[in-house]
Write a structure and sequence with these properties.
Elements (H helix, E strand, L loop, with lengths): L2 E7 L3 H13 L5 E6 L6 H8 L4 E4 L5 H10 L6 E5 L3 E3 L4 H10 L3 E10 L2 E5 L7 E3 L5 E3 L2 E2 L2 E2 L9 E4 L6 E5 H6 L12 H11 L3 E12 L10 H18 L2 H24 L3 H23 L16 H6 L6 H4 L3
Parallel strand pairs: 1-2, 1-4, 2-3, 6-14
Antiparallel strand pairs: 4-13, 5-14, 6-7, 6-13, 8-9, 10-11, 12-14
């Protein structure tokens, strides 16, 4: 099995300097590439000078995560692509459990490792944790992370488990599946494009897995922090995009209506917190969704939409009303 690790970069020279050493040290069995999204700093020069063994792919413009990877992976020859954030520190033998899982689970199309917090290494990290899920209304969350609550890693997720979505911070995907699905939806730009991608994969009959024996540490927030209104905009809008594209039509319309109401409540909550820019970001997200609804609706594929896509009806209710902070408690409710 030939694995290619592709690190998308945009003006991240400092991150490359910090995180490339672990990738090159512990990934001898894989080819490594840096896909540069038209950086204006010294990223490309740094890689050429200090890591001549790493391949460099120079995209013509900054198309964000989605288009950036679509453009870059078309130039990479491998059986499995590893999409790795530039702010991830990998560990010794991190690739071996992934390789074994692909061999032992032929139905696996996409796999993610355990994602731990680089700054608090005994806790899970926000972006992916121990595998992604969504609730009935399409809100994403993870084993080990529900909203802003992060669990301590006590070995409770040291397993191999089928999940709903794998994080784009560190995602392994079979080449043929990536091209069958035509890659990421470039209209997302960034954030939740991996949820849409995995959702489409599952609608096509593929499976997504988490492999806990493989560990990486993610810094997180290097591109957009959780406090950035642009991230709020992208998350709220792109989640509505995914619902429109990936659910049966009658179900999608009902859920979109409920989501719009709940988004309005979230906007009011931001007002009470005096976070007015985030309130505007939600309004902006809705306006953008309305303007692109027809475009997204036309992207609906002629496929058998899976109906059992969620593990809980409402993560919002469980978290804010029932005060559930642990995934294993959540799935028992």
């Amino acid at each position: 099995m030939k694995i290619a690790i592709v690190i998308l970069n945009w003006n991240g020279e400092v991150l490359l300097e910090r995180f490339l050493p672990s990738v090159t040290k512990y990934s001898k069995s894989a080819d490594i590439f840096v896909a540069d999204n038209a950086s204006t700093d010294g990223s490309v020069s740094f890689v050429k000078e200090h890591y001549p063994e790493i391949g460099i792919i120079q995209n013509k413009n900054n198309g964000g995560f989605a288009k950036g990877y679509n453009d870059a992976l078309s130039q990479v020859d491998a059986d499995v692509f590893c999409l790795l954030n530039s702010d991830v520190e990998v560990t010794q033998n991190w690739l071996k459990p992934i390789e074994e899982a692909f061999k032992e689970l032929p139905e696996a199309a996409i796999i993610q490792p355990k994602i731990l917090d680089l700054l608090k290494k005994d806790h899970f990290e926000y972006a992916g944790a121990a595998g992604g899920f969504i609730d009935q209304l399409g809100y994403p969350f993870c084993r080990g992370r529900i909203f802003q609550s992060l669990e301590k890693d006590k070995g409770q997720y040291n397993d191999i488990k089928e999940i709903f979505w794998a994080t784009g911070a560190c995602m392994f995907v079979k080449r043929e599946v990536f091209y069958e699905l035509k890659g990421f939806d470039a209209d997302y730009f960034a954030h939740q494009e991996e949820v849409d991608f995995c959702w489409r994969a599952k609608n096509h009959g593929y499976k997504v897995y988490y492999v806990g024996a493989s560990e990486v540490y993610h810094l997180g927030g290097s591109t957009l922090s959780n406090m950035n209104p642009k991230k709020t905009f992208l998350n709220f809008r792109n989640s509505l995009f995914s619902i429109t594209k990936n659910l049966p039509r009658h179900k999608a319309f009902i859920i979109i209506f409920v989501r719009l109401l709940l988004d309005g409540i979230a906007a009011l909550r931001f007002v009470f917190q005096l976070r007015f820019k985030h309130c505007w970001a939600i309004l902006h997200a809705h306006l953008s969704f309305y303007s692109q609804f027809n475009k997204m609706y036309k992207k609906r594929e002629k496929t058998k939409f899976i109906l059992k896509y969620y593990v809980t009806k409402s993560i919002v209710w469980s978290y804010f009303v029932n005060q559930v902070r642990n995934f294993n408690i959540l799935v028992k409710d």
